[in-house]
Amino acid sequence: MLTFLLGRSHSGKTQRVLEQLVALPSSDRPVYLLLPDQSTFEGERRCYRTLGAKAFSRIQVTGFSRLASRLVSRYHPQGRPAADAKQKLLLMQLALEEAGPLLTVYSSPASRSHLAPAMLQTVEQLKSAGMDPAALEEFAHALPEGTLRSKLLDTAAVYAGYQGLLLRRFTDPLEDVAQAAKLVQEHRLFAGGQFFLDGFDFLSQDKLLLLEQMLLQGERVTVTLTLDPADPRRESLFALSDLLYHQLRALARKLGVPVAAKEVIPQPTGVRPPALEALEQQIYTPKPAAYDQPAEAIQLLRAPNRQEEVQAVAARIRELARKGYRYRDMAVVMGSEAYRPLLQSALERYQVPYYLDDPMSPLGSPLFRLVQCCFALAAGSFSPLQATALLKCGLTPFDESRVGELENYLYLWGLGEEGFFAPFTLSIYGLDGPRNAQQRQEETARLARLEEMRKFLLDAVLPFRKLGECSARVMTQGLLDLLDRLQVRQVTQEYLQILEQDTEQPAQSLAAAAQYRRMWETLGELCTDIAQILGDRVVSFSRYWQLLELLAEQTGLETVPQALDCVNVGQSGKLHLEQVKVLLIVGVEEGVFPQTPAGCPLFGEGEEELLAQYQLPIARDRLRRTQEGRFYAYQTLTGGEQQLFLSFPEGDLQGSPIPPSPLLEELSALFPQCRQETLIQRDPARLCQSQEAGFALLAAAQQSDVFTKTLEDYFSHRTEYAGLLQQIRQGRQAASQQLDPPLVEQLYGAHPFLSPSRVEDFYRCPFQFFCKQGLKLYPRRQVGYDPLSRGNLVHEILCKVLAQIRSKEDLTPQRLQQLAEECVQLYLEQHLPKGSLDNPR
């Protein structure tokens, strides 16, 4: 029997399922609670707390994928491993390369260079929809001639090649669901079982095959849907759930399974603030009725820009925490990915513990930047720029000061590859050379340090360069040997020990240490995948790095929460909103929130509209995707139990306006008495919710008032801010300050030398004059034939020529010309790097 539990968002459908699970009598028949894969952890925890240990032990809380994988591994143990996402992506890239000569639209290598992720996503959607390469090719031949038909035929060819490469070495977890349906049918594994499906708004074709066996063999299948048959929004907002409702009813009639009368759970009243209940009832209705009561639970904030917007949100979270809310009671939904770094900075400034669920790409990590530099040095010329970039990653034995010395030396002489392969003997002071014994001693010591780094890099990288084009296995081993010669692992271990022994910020240090370890694990996994899948295929340095970069782009360095009590942060549709009391949505901009889900990545919007008309299973038209976007926005807006906070920026830092989402206008009309704030009119004291934020406000204050004097008095009692507070006070009294005469004498000397050029420098820029003449800090200069160098050259030639004149016979024009040319040649050989004499300049 098929039964439905229908109700709108937060009507208590899940609680009703748990009550029915509690009421089930004890028996040996299987009981399953099926949830979306991303919700199984929270579902298990809630089910355990509600049912207790004894009742929970009789129930299997799982998702379709995990259930299918368990059944397949039990009855069909495979000798081949299951392919993960990275291995699939690499196989897809190989399939694209092998199918290249057969393709039409994607025939050029440039069109295939970044196609693998989109092609893999499309193929997996087709596979979940039950469409194999032959069926896709047949579908394509039914279309009229054109680009769209050629695209589908290309996709079918790549799909077939990918399947061959995949099944030759691995099994595909995506095929487990369809295979599990056959096993259940063969062994009658669901006989007499009870099945509860909660939280679904769409079921792919392979999941429907497994659901068929549940309907045929099980005693009862209960499905919850976010749907109210009497709601006027049924065919618009709840169109997804309504489509699945009719689809399941048709499937039950086809199988001859009875359908029980649907149970519609009424929306509870009095549980949430009246304004939030009205929001759930009226949002996206054709003719919404305005809520004429005060709506304190709904707040709208207008900020000048995104930076000030996130500062206000972080301050609001701290304010709520002071009022008794736990951080885990709050969640922040980002409108777009652009808010990620801004939110991280603001939450850290306001000392708000948070967990950002989206993984970070490893390509920005120091280890992957170092590997990229290694391949750049191996693939092309031995660029000194790449050599210093490698050392700057901080994973070699040389600290920042020594790397800076090398970079300055290379810049001073403009050394290229040939100059890097020769010993460093040129003066660190340029053409002038050392002027005294102390400078000669410093030059000797520094040149020794520079030569040590030069030999270290050459000894490490040259054996790797000699590999040239070789097999993927040899290239992988060569890369690992290179990292050992660079002492990267040793330096990383030493840094990890420092982090683990840190007592000032132990949580942040342990998190950084864990991230470094995951970085190494990720690099090892990716290189292993390349070596195993490509095997003895010959690859070049650039090709190997392209594959490694492709895999790294699709790999995330996952993070774990650093505290049990923290604010969850994520994008709309990706964040699990369960038992959230305060929901804060930032970046409510036009086209961002609500956001229309993207279509199939291989096809444009017009092409997907046409494919939807031809009924390709994975194609969705514009109307369908708009309905999905509104449904997910409805689920997000109704996620907060007590307060809803929405913010949006008026523009960016360049002054360009950012249009707000039409949703804000709809909410303002629906709740005319909701709290609406403009950040310019906001009390600055409400932004002062942490010491760091308060001190930033004090430092930015342009004038002294009651607020700044209060802050100054507060920080005057904090010893850690004493030095910074003194600097702020001195800055405000700059008009009455005078330079200390002994300090001036120490900087410029008792009798400073003045010339017209120095006076001109002072009036052009006093600060530059202070840096050059006082602190003796000069901008970096490259050796070149400027007027100053020309004068030095003429002076040295004159000295050497005159020293070689012994008699009047040496004063002939021919002899003087010969002596001058010899002196010039000797001067250039002594002062210019190797290879520079070949340059006509």
UniProtKB/TrEMBL annotation:
Signal peptide: none annotated. Keywords: ATP-binding, DNA damage, DNA repair, DNA-binding, Exonuclease, Helicase, Hydrolase, Nuclease, Nucleotide-binding. GO terms for molecular function: ATP binding; DNA binding; exonuclease activity; helicase activity. InterPro entries: ADDB_N (IPR049035), DNA_helicase_UvrD-like_C (IPR014017), P-loop_NTPase (IPR027417), PDDEXK_AddAB-type (IPR038726). One of its GO terms (biological process) is DNA repair. Residues 267-555 form the UvrD-like helicase C-terminal domain. This is PD-(D/E)XK nuclease family protein. It comes from Candidatus Egerieicola pullicola.
